[in-house]
Amino acid sequence: MTCGAQGPHSAQPRRAESPSPAGGEARFAANALRLSGLAGVLLGWRPGEFWEATPAELAAVFAALRPPGEAIVGEDELVRLKERFPDA
Length: 88
Hints:
Elements: H1 24-43, H2 47-52, H3 55-65, H4 75-84
């Protein structure tokens, strides 16, 4: 018998499906790729440095690069977000 062989009756657990909305993983991957590229180009970070950073650290660094007084999102985007996530 071969060690590590996996057949149709393998005891390996199946990976649970993500409860994310359709395309959520693809959007995450695309955004992570874009942000890691920006971190590499603008900050000189290697991939490990990007993945070890918390979202708050990454946001703080990119906020420091934004000109003073510049809005994070445009007015149209803000209206769209308010419609999508209304206050209770």
